[in-house]
Amino acid sequence: MSRQVKRSLALLLGAGTLAMGGTILPTDAAQAQATGVETLLAQARYWRSQGREDRARDAYRRVLQIDPANAEARRGVAGGGTPAPSPRAAPRPAPAPSAPPATRTGPPAAAPARPASRPAAPRQTGGEDRAAGFRALEAGQLDRAANLFQAALGRSRSDDEALGGLGIVRLRQSRFVEARDLLTRATALGSAAQWADALRSARFYGGIEEARATLAAGDLTGAETQAQALVRSGFETPAPALLLLAEIYEQQGRYADAADILAQAGADPGAEAGQLQSRAARNRALAAARTGDAETAEAAFVNGLLLDPADPWIRYEFGRWLIARGRAAEGDSMIAALSGIGTADALYAAALLQEELGRPLEAQRLVDRIPDAERSPLVRSFAGTLQLDRQLEEARALAAQGQAGQAGATLRRLAADPAYAARRPQIAQALLDAGDPAGATELARAALSGGAVDAAGYETLVRVLASAGADAEARAALAGARQRLGPTQVERLDAVLAVSRADRLRQDGRLAEAFDLLQNAWRVEPNSTEVLFQLGLLYETGNMPAQGAQAFQLLLAREPDDVPALLGLARTATAAGDNSLADDAVRRAMAQAPEDHEVYLAAADLARARGDERRAVRLLEQARLFYGRSQGLALGDLSAGNPFASSALGTNPFRAQQALAPAPASINPFALTAGETRLPGAMASAGFPQAYAQDEPALAADPVLARIDSDLRTLRNEAGPRVEVDAGFRDRSGEEGLSALSELNGTARVSTDLGRGRIGVEAELVALDSGVPSRSAQARFGRNATAEAQAIVDELPTPLALAPTQHAAGVAPSLFYAGDLLDARIGTTPLGFEYQEITGRLELKPRLGPSTSARAWVERQAVDDTILSYAGTRDPVTGDFWGQVMQTGGGVSLSWDQNGNGVYGDLAYHQYRGRAVANNDSLQANVGGYLLLHQGANDRIIAGANLNYQAYDNNQNNFTFGHGGYFSPQTFLAVSFPLRYIHTSDRLEVELQAAPGYQSFDQDQTAIYPTDAAAQAQLDALKRINTDVRSYYDALSQTGFAFSGRGRATYQVSPRTRIVGDLGYDTFGIFNEFTSTIGIRQQLGNGD
């Protein structure tokens, strides 16, 4: 070997072992310095190969402290350095405790070890190329050296020194597997001792590289086996293998084992002890968190931060843990700290946390701060994902606004971009969501034909194809997946296909078929949460909420933090009447996703369904603020209003209980019983305080904000102080001065919400007029019938006492409460009438099931058919007062409604008592049903049938003294066929109803003076003298067509002002009646 080559190899290979291990044995100071430089340069190259530019720059800076003129180190600090092979392509890390980002766990390494002795002088064949190769290697010209060694090998493939030299080049380039293969061949052809140290290093780091490739392929078991073999290999610096094994344990969720391995790695000479101890503390924290030991977890996180304050990944995990526990404000402090550290890794970790909080724009701003030269492949992939996700959301928003064509064009443009080829499954899903199943199916086919689809991509594509109705292609995709994926992943895809088909059947109303399909899928994969979730939706759609609640609980026993399942449980438990279970589910969802506006929207819907408008308003305001924050809109500050930001909440009781609870496998989810929402042994948990937020003006052109603002306007009209003023007119046909009635009324009402209802006071002004009775009517008014009878007998003109105009006016005050369970009112008949009577009503409205409700009531009300029955009047003959009839009684009602179709029935009994009026009793029964004929986005059409029966003990429909002046047939039967149209838009609500039908009733013969036996006896005596005398009222029977119609409209003039109008016309009964009302509703305050 030439002297120059010997000197080159001594300099290049005398560095000792790789990076963090080995003992340097310099022969003099200069060689020692060169050896230290080479070791540090090797470390820098290794970290660059792993995408860790921060650690690579640290190594380059340490080189410059030894050798300020080193060109490679200068380039490295400036962002250049020796070109490294592109880091392995890796998927974007899922921010979950079981899968920490790969960039934080790369094993340390550096330059190759030197051979035991210098190689012998090169032979003459290819000698010039080989010698030139060693000179280039000494000068750091790795690419030139590789070319020269390859040229020498081109002349002689058995040139062991050229093979060894090329192996050293590959070691310098961190291409360890190639280096191992080349040095193995050189050892076999030449002296084994010559290349022994370098080969040992190449084998160790080649094994590391292969194990990492196995890990990247998702084979955790295979990677674990390889890493354990490397740990046992006896390599003098096993820390890289230990770090790899710890990373594998982390991804397996074996955090305690990972902590033990990291402790071993920290004992290795040259290991970064503080960083490894911090990482071990992080794993201890995650292990404690998994068992629900929050106190130990938090203490371990804090300890890890103290051990290595600059480690961004322990802050990332601590931030995720805080966010998962509802402590979003403290999570924000972690983001602020990471942003302040400012390294590429810290900014990346902060961006991941922002995305987890649902703030993609904030995440993008953090990624933008990372210099392009410092962006690892993971960061670049994450940035591309953020950009694509934003465009997908924009396309969905366009579709929600009715711009489906523009949304589809945007998505097709994204699908055609080669940069997003790997995200075609997600784009296909977005096309399906935008209402383009054909485009989604076409893109799914293209993605499958491309071949490069991972397990998650297959799942999305199978779901898209099945949801779009392309079952045959979905099955073909599943067949292709069987050849590429493992059995567990294929079983999951089987469940996905079944679930997607079942979901389509469910939406088509084919519930029995969907049930059978899910049951078969459960037999294949009995632990599928996908099947359980769809089963819960199926029970919910089939109006079986108790079974639905149980199905969602079975799912949550397996995945306690599944937010959609928690919301499903809240809906079904509410429908089943188990409000405490529903409240627990909502709290758990909020704790798990404290800034997800969808969670708050769902919670607001539940609060509104229970009649709790104030809480619904607060939840909607919170949803609005969180949505605005996620979209980068300035809608207010959340920190002051988020009750989950406080650590005073302590340990999340749901996370601790559910994480440890075994799945109740003994319960068959396809044989759940009705009537019970709880699973055996299920316990309700304590509640959390609710969220508060601020009111903000609406922003236009955003469909989510538009929906929230519309709901807020509606709820604020139902909550808070309100003033209502109505003016009305009623006109009833009949005989002037007797049964005819004209009424003007005006009502002023002030109310506010109280609990789950409204309490208020009301004053109703009424002015009644019936006119002056005609002479014929005067003879049938008061006691004038006696004078008329005597005149007939005497054959003289009738000396009638003339009654004045029948008129009455007054103001009726009342106090009321109207709630979802109870209505109550107490007041008096109008002040201004001659006498006043107490009025009142108490009504209970319990729900007996998700579709069944009942009512029971007692009441005392004025009979307002005529002036006589309502206000009473005086006899023009004697001046005696009579009339003012009050009905006292009650009733019960039962109704059933499912999806807008229903039946109902009620039964009521009343007693009628008045002043100097004959007593009466009545019984009324009412049954009917209705069908939803049409359900649109803004309107409904409902048709039905109704049968009404009434029976009064005696006929009081007359106006002589002792009669009450109200319609009281002895039998009344009516059948009607109501048809209703309801239209609802942002500002206008319209309801129209027409009910044609038939009626038949009869009234018995009745005495003229039912309460005055002497006066009646006198009439009877006169009747016997002259049969023209009237001593009783004849019986009456009538049958024929009848009609009832009504129109009602509400228009929202401003967010807090509405105008209402009502028109009605009714011919059922003995009179025709027309009513009209116009009013204003003014909300005071903002409804908070």
Automatic annotation (TrEMBL):
UniProt cross-references to PROSITE patterns, sorted A to Z: TPR
Pfam families: BCSC_C, TPR_16, TPR_19
Pathway: Glycan metabolism; bacterial cellulose biosynthesis
GO cellular component terms given for this protein: outer membrane
Listed Pro residues bias regions: 84-100
Signal sequence coordinates: 1-21
Residues annotated as domain Cellulose synthase operon C C-terminal: 740-1083
Keyword Repeat attributed: yes
Gene3D superfamilies the record matches: Tetratricopeptide repeat domain (1.25.40.10)
Swiss-Prot/TrEMBL TPR repeat ranges: 37-70
Compositionally biased region (Low complexity): 101-123
Stretch list, region Disordered: 71-129
BP terms from Gene Ontology: cellulose biosynthetic process
Keyword field: Cellulose biosynthesis, Repeat, Signal, TPR repeat
Superkingdom of the source species: Bacteria
Protein name: Cellulose synthase operon C C-terminal domain-containing protein
